Amino acid sequence: MNGLRLAGCKTVPLPWLIVCCCITALLMGGVGLLWFIRRRISNDQGLLELRLRAMQSDIAALSACQVDAMERALAREQHLRAIEGRIEAAEQRLRQIARRQEEQLHVGEPGETSYGAAIRLAHQGANVDQLVSTFGLARGEAELIAALHRAESEKT
Questions:
Q1: In a shared domain, residues 151 and 113
Q2: What is the pTM of this model?
Q3: What domain range is 90 assigned to?
């Protein structure tokens, strides 16, 4: 027999039967390969979705950190401006104090030196602390002026 006889059909030649079997085997292999590829793609898609969610979470966390860092930077800048304002106010106050001290050093008659004014106040009974604070004298200088000129005022 050169072929296969099917019930109620003609005899199929053997080469055709082999070709049909090979084609069927190839089709089955192709279907199996497609099933395998589809399954692999499905698994890869799941992994990609997990990675995407992780990246979205990372982006959200980085955005939150960036917002926090910007808020802290703004707070520091405001704090720095407040400090600068306080420094400026302190400098202005120091200038006023220096101006007042300068005025106090020149108390008395025009052309009178600070020592002269200190001597005049010592005659009027000013104590050492007043001479130091008013004229910026060293404590020893103020004590000497007070001792010498109090003694003179007591003699007269």
A1: yes
A2: 0.37
A3: 56-105
